[in-house]
From TrEMBL:
Domain of life from the UniProt record: Bacteria
Naturally occurring in which organism (per UniProt): Rheinheimera aquimaris
InterPro entries: SapC
Name of the protein: SapC family protein
A Pfam family matched in the record: SapC
Length: 245
C-alpha cells in the first residue's frame, strides 16, 4: 500500500532513496509509458511505439524494454542496474510524484514521496536534502524528471491528435526470430507510417513543424532501429542462460 506525503526538509532530512533498478523493485517491465518531452533523448536508446486505448479512443507512447511479459532487457548487474545512458522518466522518478498546491493566485508544483516504496529508507541511497536544508542534486534531478512528465502529459493528446489528423499512425506488427530458432510476432502497437511522413508537403508539414511535433515524429521513426538491438539483447540473455544451464 502506498503512503504518499508532501516532501519537506524537516520530516525527511534523513530520508534516502536507492537509485538502483532491478526486478526486486518492480522494474522488470516489458514496456513503460513515455512522453513527448523525452522523445529526442529516448530515440537514442529505445524503440518508441504507440498504444491505442479503445475506451476513450486515445493514444499514448511507450518505450519497449523487453519482448516477453515481466522482461526488461535493460536491467543489468552493472552500476545502478540499468544498461542505458537515459532511463525513462516514469521509471527514473522512483517513489516520487508531482502535486500542486494553491499559493495565493497561482498553483505551485510540489513533490510527494511514497514512504512505503521499497527504495525508500534512512540508511542507504541518495540523500534528498543537504545539511543546511536545500535540495540535493539528486532531488533537483527528480524534480526536473517530474516536470518533464507533467509537461509531457499535456503534450501527448495534441501530438497524437495531429498524427491522426494527418493519417500518420499505422499498426506495427513486428515479426522476429531468435537464435534458438523461435519465431515470434509482436502486435498491438502502432508506429508512424514512413511513407506518409515523407509525403507531407506545404501547409501540413508547416502545421506539424509549428506545433513542435515534426521533430517528435522523426524521433519516433528513428527509434525503431532499436528493435533489432532489443532482439540482440534477448539473444545475449538466451546465451547466458544456456551457459549456466
Amino acid at each position: 500500500m502506498t503512503q504518499h506525503v508532501l516532501l519537506n526538509n524537516i520530516d525527511h532530512q534523513h530520508t534516502r532513496v536507492l537509485h538502483h533498478f532491478s526486478a526486486e523493485y518492480g522494474d522488470n517491465q516489458v514496456s513503460v509509458p513515455v512522453f513527448p518531452t523525452e522523445f529526442t533523448t529516448l530515440q537514442h536508446e529505445y524503440a518508441i511505439l504507440a498504444r491505442h486505448n479503445e475506451q476513450d479512443d486515445s493514444f499514448h507512447a511507450i518505450a519497449l524494454l523487453g519482448l516477453a511479459p515481466d522482461e526488461n532487457l535493460y536491467l543489468s548487474n552493472n552500476n545502478n542496474g540499468w544498461d542505458a545512458r537515459y532511463i525513462p522518466a516514469l521509471i527514473e522518478k522512483g517513489p516520487f510524484r508531482i502535486g500542486f498546491q494553491q499559493q495565493q493566485t497561482e498553483r505551485e508544483a510540489v513533490v510527494h514521496i511514497d514512504l512505503a516504496h521499497p527504495k525508500v529508507n534512512s540508511l542507504h541511497g541518495q540523500q534528498l536534502f543537504l545539511p543546511e536544508g536545500g535540495s540535493s542534486p539528486y532531488l533537483q534531478h527528480i524534480t526536473d524528471t517530474l516536470l518533464r512528465i507533467h509537461q509531457g502529459m499535456a503534450l501527448t493528446k495534441p501530438m497524437f491528435g495531429a498524427f491522426r489528423q494527418l493519417q500518420l499512425l499505422q499498426p506495427a506488427n513486428i515479426e522476429y526470430s531468435l537464435q534458438n530458432g523461435e519465431k515470434h510476432r509482436l502486435s498491438g502497437n502502432y508506429c508512424l507510417n514512413t511513407e506518409a511522413l515523407a509525403a507531407l508537403r506545404g501547409p501540413e508539414l508547416e502545421q506539424l513543424h509549428l506545433a513542435g511535433f515534426l521533430q517528435l515524429a522523426f524521433a519516433m521513426q528513428s527509434s525503431l532501429r532499436h528493435i533489432s538491438s532489443l532482439i540482440e539483447r534477448k539473444n545475449q540473455l538466451l546465451q547466458r542462460l544456456a551457459a549456466t544451464a
